[in-house]
């Protein structure tokens, strides 16, 4: 798809957005953000023809780019009647979700533990010239203390339990969404109300595990 015209890519994105609507995504700003980001530029050229299918795709290093529905659903749950504000993304991967978040958040801090993937995310994002996205090599399970607190935190890897560092870096009134579990995973939404943390469980998902350290 990289070598075809922009019109074909736009039509493929429009079909993807129509499918997201039929799957139950209702937040029009999330749908517009998904429409606005050229997903095919974030995958290998040989997989570009599948970029707008509702499926995860490999991006190397045993990592994947999440299927469009999961990206849209997690962001929709984070927004739900409010602005994303200052946002932390744990697991930048190829940079796609950071690009979508950039359309909706005032600032996006995206951390990635695998240096070659971080380099790829930087290269993928550079042509889009997104001034509100910052990338950093870091252990995502520890969050990003120097930029905390965050109004929104989104985790693109499955934790065994809620990482305490991420919970601690959530601003009052903020929300955190993270896949939790091992073989069986579900989305956990955490909302901070003062010093009270309210938890809500959502769909079954499948993510690579959240690992510590950098490489």
TrEMBL record:
GO terms for cellular component: cytoplasm. Its main location: cytoplasm. It catalyses: [protein]-L-isoaspartate + S-adenosyl-L-methionine = [protein]-L-isoaspartate alpha-methyl ester + S-adenosyl-L-homocysteine. Keywords: Cytoplasm, Methyltransferase, S-adenosyl-L-methionine, Transferase. The active site is at 66. One of its GO terms (molecular function) is protein-L-isoaspartate (D-aspartate) O-methyltransferase activity. Pfam families: PCMT. InterPro entries: PCMT, SAM-dependent_MTases_sf. Belongs to the methyltransferase superfamily. L-isoaspartyl/D-aspartyl protein methyltransferase family. This is Protein-L-isoaspartate O-methyltransferase. It comes from Thauera propionica. The gene is pcm.
């Amino acid at each position: 798809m990289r070598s075809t015209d922009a019109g074909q890519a736009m039509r493929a994105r429009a079909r993807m957005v129509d499918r997201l609507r039929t799957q139950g995504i209702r937040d029009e700003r999330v749908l517009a953000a998904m429409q606005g980001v050229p997903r095919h530029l974030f995958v290998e050229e040989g997989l570009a023809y599948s970029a707008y299918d509702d499926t995860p795709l490999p991006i190397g290093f045993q990592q994947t780019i999440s299927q469009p529905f999961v990206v849209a659903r997690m962001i929709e749950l984070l927004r739900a009647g409010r602005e994303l504000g200052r946002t932390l993304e744990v697991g930048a991967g190829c940079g796609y979700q950071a690009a979508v978040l950039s359309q909706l958040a005032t600032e996006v801090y995206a951390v990635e533990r695998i240096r070659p993937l971080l380099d790829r995310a930087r290269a993928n994002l550079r042509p889009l010239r997104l001034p509100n996205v910052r990338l950093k090599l870091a252990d995502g399970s520890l969050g990003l203390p120097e930029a905390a607190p965050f109004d929104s935190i989104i985790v693109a890897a499955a934790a065994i339990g809620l990482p305490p560092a991420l919970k601690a870096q959530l601003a009052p009134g903020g929300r955190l969404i993270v896949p939790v579990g091992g073989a069986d995973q579900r989305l956990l939404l955490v909302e901070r109300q003062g010093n009270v943390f309210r938890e809500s469980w959502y769909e079954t998902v499948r993510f690579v595990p959240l690992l510590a350290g950098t490489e």
